[in-house]
Design goal:
alpha+beta, 8 strands, 34% strand
Length: 110
C-alpha cells in the first residue's frame, strides 16, 4: 500500500507527518540523502512518480524559473492563480524577472 493521498489541486502525493502535510517526494529525498529540501522536481513531469531516480533537487535561489524548450520561463502560482513574467535565455534572468514581477504585482499579498 502506498502512503498518503494525491492532492487533486496540484497532483502531488502528500503525507500527513506529525500533523503537517508534506509532499512524498521531500520525504523520499530525505530518506535517500539525509537532506531535507524545501522542494524537489520530478524529471519526467509526473508529480506522483516519486521514485528517487526521478527526483532532483530544486535550488531555492532559482525557484520560479522553469526550463521550457531552450529558454527559461519566469512564473508563479499563488492561491491557485497563475502569473507569467516572460521567457528568458538564462535561469538567472528568469528568476530575477519573477522576483521583480512579484514586487510589482504584489501577487503574494492576498
Amino acid at each position: 500500500r502506498i502512503a498518503g493521498t494525491i492532492d487533486h489541486r496540484n497532483g502531488f502525493r502528500i503525507v500527513n507527518m506529525d500533523g503537517h502535510l508534506v509532499t512524498a517526494s521531500r520525504i523520499i529525498w530525505c530518506w535517500m540523502t539525509g537532506e531535507w529540501l524545501e522542494a524537489t522536481k520530478h524529471k519526467n513531469g509526473v508529480r506522483d512518480d516519486n521514485r528517487f531516480v526521478n527526483l532532483e533537487k530544486v535550488e531555492r535561489k532559482y525557484r520560479g524559473a522553469v526550463k521550457t524548450g531552450d529558454r527559461w520561463t519566469a512564473r508563479a502560482t499563488v492561491y491557485g492563480r497563475q502569473y507569467f513574467f516572460g521567457r528568458y535565455d538564462t535561469q538567472e534572468e528568469a528568476h530575477a524577472e519573477r522576483a521583480a514581477g512579484q514586487r510589482v504585482t504584489n501577487c503574494w499579498r492576498r
